[in-house]
Design goal:
The chain is α/β, with parallel strands linked by helices. It contains six helices and 39 strands. About 10% of the residues lie in helices and about 25% in strands. The protein is elongated, with a radius of gyration of 40 Å. This is Non-specific serine/threonine protein kinase protein.
Length: about 700
């Protein structure tokens, strides 16, 4: 590197920070090679004036009017703090070569005046609240790094940016930009990192991008890009990371995928169309993270995956894989996370899966039930809910069978869950607590009344990932205690109502966005989208809590009818790759649910309203006794009558029935002259019948 050159040292927003000792070494190296590390030479007046205007437009305080090159962000705890760096010095002046301002919540717009700093090589304004468009004036700069992650930048990528052929890193992730990706970016032949995730870019990927032979990272997830997956991807032979989750691209995977031998990270989800075939990845043996989720891939799991010795995360969930888990998978000694959820896998589950103590999710498959556990639906960190095809309730636990059937007589008719929080009472409704911390492959049931199953890993934040969100601000809403917590999932979250009486129910889903705040800060830039299905029917698509509630920190309740016909209710929350993923920090995305309530639309036939079996038998027995008594009475009455008729019949007397008036008239209205005497009970009279 010649005198006056600047060491080319950069840090990707998604990468791990370089050790401080490495930066110090570069710093010392630069000093001995002609770079003014802490310049004692002044800036040209026009650069000082440009900095003043830049600071005003950015809404930033002017930290030093005498020597702007001495400013270092006093609030930063990062290895590379925000600063203004000067260098590229000649005999009388130095020049501004780098401006880094992170997490300062700058509220201004992007200044054209950056274009006046003709030696500027680094612009990094990440995680602020800047608006406006990217100025065309920047295209004249010798930029090596341009990073605007996590702002409110709108508009299109200027075609003129393609003229900055020195550019190695272009990060526009998590903004509000749109339109097509310009063909001119194909001229950035030195580009190594291109991050466009979490915007609204549309159209096809331009063929000119195939010219980017030095590309090592491409993130285009969370954009409605269309067209087929391009074959020119095979030109990126140095590519280490490819993230295409949540686009509108279509399959099949081109055969050129076999050229990606340097891949470390591959994440693709929700791509439509194609031939259902697995991408040709036989040569990608350096893979550490492979996510191919919800792609309708069918056939057998490729045996060669077992040769990817570096693999630590494998997610092939929500596909149509059939057959057995290959024996070669047992060779993956570094595999910490494996998600085979919602496929059609059969055979026996390999024993090594239960002995490694890692997060493996095998739920919703068709494994044989011969070796299934009888009492457990989760063994260690292995989630087995609905993973077996057997329907024999005497051999395996009910939660291991499809649809989580009720193992006893249905006895519930409502359900109230405070997702992620403690038990509490709202009015007459008692919400049950749901405080289990959760995990990447997690299933928990609660008294055969309800359960949840969570699948997936927050890929960029595996060391400190939350599965429960806790609100830290004041919530101005009705029943705020119901929204102080929420359960999260990076991919799929299912809640089950168990052993419910069959019938029609009202399902209320309670939401509030408590991780993305409403103040004018970069936290407000985040956008969360996910889908919701009830009983297998989609009821919400690309649901955005904050948009539906007209702001963050506000409650929104979505109400639906659901029919329960087999005593189980299933509510499914699923992330398909839309929205931002690095705001307010890494891994803020995926489903979030605050509470669930389920009430019947029919008069419950509850146990309290039912008579016990003993009571019913008692009533039947009493009824039988009464019937027997009545029958006996009728029999005796009839027999007596027959006897009387028989006795009187030998007297040859007229026998018949008399009215009361006839009985009174016969003895002359019981005249004493007609009295014969006293009988055993009453006086006896003589009388004559007048017939």
């Amino acid at each position: 590197m010649g005198s006056g050159a600047v060491p080319k040292l950069f840090i990707s927003e998604g990468s791990n920070c370089f050790p401080l000792i490495l930066l110090l070494s570069v710093y010392i190296w630069s000093c001995f090679h002609g770079v003014e590390c802490q310049s004692h030479l002044p800036l040209p007046n026009h650069e000082v004036e440009a900095l003043r205007r830049i600071w005003l437009k950015l809404g930033q305080k002017w930290y030093s009017s005498t020597d702007p090159c001495t400013w270092v962000d006093p609030t930063s705890n990062e290895v590379v703090p925000g600063n203004v760096t000067c260098g590229s010095c000649d005999g009388s002046h130095c020049h501004v070569i780098s401006i880094i301002i992170r997490r300062q919540n700058l509220t201004g717009s992007l200044p054209d005046e950056f274009g006046s700093l003709k030696h500027l090589q680094v612009i990094a304004l990440t995680r602020n609240y800047l608006n406006g468009t990217i100025p065309v004036a920047w295209a004249s700069l010798p930029l090596i790094k341009l990073s605007l992650l996590g702002n409110r930048i709108s508009g299109r990528i200027p075609e003129e940016l393609g003229n900055i052929t020195s550019l190695k890193e272009l990060v526009l992730q998590d903004n509000l930009m749109g339109g097509p990706i310009p063909t001119s970016l194909g001229k950035l032949i030195n580009l190594e990192i291109l991050h466009l995730s979490g915007n609204n870019f549309r159209g096809e990927l331009p063929k000119a991008l195939g010219n980017l032979k030095n590309l090592t990272e491409l993130r285009i997830d969370g954009n409605p890009l269309s067209g087929q997956i391009p074959s020119f991807i095979g030109n990126w032979k140095m590519l280490k990371q490819l993230d295409m989750e949540g686009t509108s691209l279509e399959g099949p995977f081109p055969s050129s995928f076999s050229e990606l031998e340097s891949l470390n990270v591959l994440m693709v989800s929700s791509i439509k169309g194609g031939n259902g075939e697995f991408p040709p990845l036989e040569n990608s043996r350096q893979l550490k993270i492979m996510v191919l989720r919800n792609l309708s891939i069918s056939g057998a799991l490729p045996d060669y995956i077992g040769n990817m010795a570096n693999l630590i995360l494998l997610d092939l969930s929500f596909n149509n894989f059939a057959g057995q888990i290959p024996k070669s998978f047992g060779n993956l000694s570094n595999l910490d996370n494996m998600f085979l959820t919602n496929n059609k896998l059969t055979g026996e589950i390999p024993k090594w899966i239960f002995t490694r103590g890692q997060h493996y999710d095998l739920s919703y498959n068709n494994f044989n039930g011969s070796d299934a556990p009888k009492d457990y639906c989760q063994i260690g960190y292995v989630n087995l809910v609905s993973s077996y095809s057997s329907t024999d309730s005497n051999t395996i636990a009910s939660c291991l069978r499809r649809n989580n059937p009720c193992p006893v007589k249905p006895k519930h008719h409502n359900l109230f869950i405070n997702c992620g929080g403690a038990s509490l009472t709202i009015g007459e409704d008692e919400y049950e607590g749901d405080e289990n911390i959760g995990g990447a492959s997690d299933y928990h049931s609660f008294d055969e009344k309800w359960a949840y199953s969570s699948t997936g890993r927050f890929v960029h934040n595996v060391d400190n990932e939350p599965f429960i969100a806790t609100n830290l601000s004041v919530l101005n809403m009705l029943n705020p205690e119901l929204y102080m917590t929420a359960r999260l999932s990076p991919a799929s979250l299912k809640y089950y109502g168990l052993c419910l009486h069959n019938g029609n129910y009202t399902v209320k889903l309670h939401f509030a966005e408590i991780m993305i705040t409403a103040d004018e800060a970069y936290y407000n830039v985040g956008r969360r989208f996910f889908d919701v299905s009830i009983q297998g029917e989609e009821v919400l698509s690309d649901f955005n809590i904050a948009k539906e509630a007209n702001g963050t920190g506000k409650a929104i309740v979505k109400t639906f009818d659901a029919q329960v016909s087999e005593n189980t209710l299933e509510i499914h929350f699923q992330w398909t790759g839309q929205g931002t993923s690095f705001i307010p920090h890494k891994s803020v995305y995926g489903p979030l649910i605050s509470a669930i309530s389920v009430t019947p639309n029919f008069k419950p036939d509850t146990d309290e309203s039912k008579l016990s079996t003993g009571a019913i038998l008692g009533i039947v027995a009493a009824g039988c006794v009464v019937i027997a008594l009545i029958s006996t009475f009728i029999w005796f009455h009839q027999r007596r009558k027959d006897t009387e008729n028989k006795d009187l019949g030998g007297l040859k007397l007229p026998i018949g029935y008399f009215t009361m008036s006839q009985i009174r008239a016969a003895p002359g209205k019981f005249n004493l002259e007609n009295k014969l005497g006293d009988g055993g009970f009453e006086p006896l009279y003589k009388g004559a019948s007048k017939r």
